[in-house]
């Protein structure tokens, strides 16, 4: 009787092992999913591409705004230096259509200088800024006696000023 029991136990164990072997081959079992499908990868790549495009566009816009802010700041600094010069000399430096930062590099007690060295003179502006590149136009100075005009261009609206050509005079920026 003992032999019969072990034989039936062996048959049951064999059936269990056969079931396990069949299940390991993938029948009657969920497939073990590892990795990503091609479509999932393509969707992720497309999303990353879209986000990077938006970031580049935003960066270009920020660069343009920073160049315009620098232009307005540069012009205000030159105006301040010219006001200090006027307070001491009772007139503005004489010049016609000279490019600031290129033709004139410094504003000293003797007026605008082509080099950036005032020497022993009073320096109102030791280094005159020039238009940041790219885009925009050079800062052009015209002045005599009691008046001056500095012409410059903005790429976009900045600080209440619309895009386009502008002038700075003793009365302010228009």
Shape: rod-shaped
Q: Report strand order across the widest sheet.
A: 1-5-6-7-8
* Poorly predicted sequence stretches spanning 5 or more consecutive residues: none
Q: What is the gyration radius calculated from CA atoms?
A: 39 Å
Give the percentage of residues in beta strands: 15-25%
The assigned structural class equals: alpha+beta
Which sheet architecture does the biggest sheet show?
Answer: 5 strands, antiparallel
Overall strand count: 8
Helix content: 40-55%
Q: What are the secondary-structure elements, in order, as H or E?
A: HHEEEEEEEE
* Mean model confidence by pLDDT: 85
Tally of individual helices: 2
- Give the end-to-end Cα distance, rounded to a whole number of Å: 114 Å
In brief:
With 174 residues, this protein is of the alpha+beta class. The chain has helices at residues 2-24, 38-89; strands at 92-99, 106-108, 111-113, 123-125, 140-145, 147-154, 164-169, 172-173. The chain is 43% helix and 22% strand.
Structure description:
The structure is a single chain. With about 170 residues, the protein is α+β, with helices and mostly antiparallel strands. It has a domain of about 120 residues. Helices cover about 45% and strands about 20% of the residues. It is built from 2 helices and 8 strands; from the N terminus they run H-H-E-E-E-E-E-E-E-E. Strands 1-5-6-7-8 form a 5-stranded antiparallel β-sheet, with helices on one face. Strands 3-2-4 form a 3-stranded antiparallel β-sheet. A hairpin with a 1-residue loop joins strand 5 and strand 6. The longest helix has about 50 residues. It is rod-shaped and about 120 Å long. The mean pLDDT is about 85.
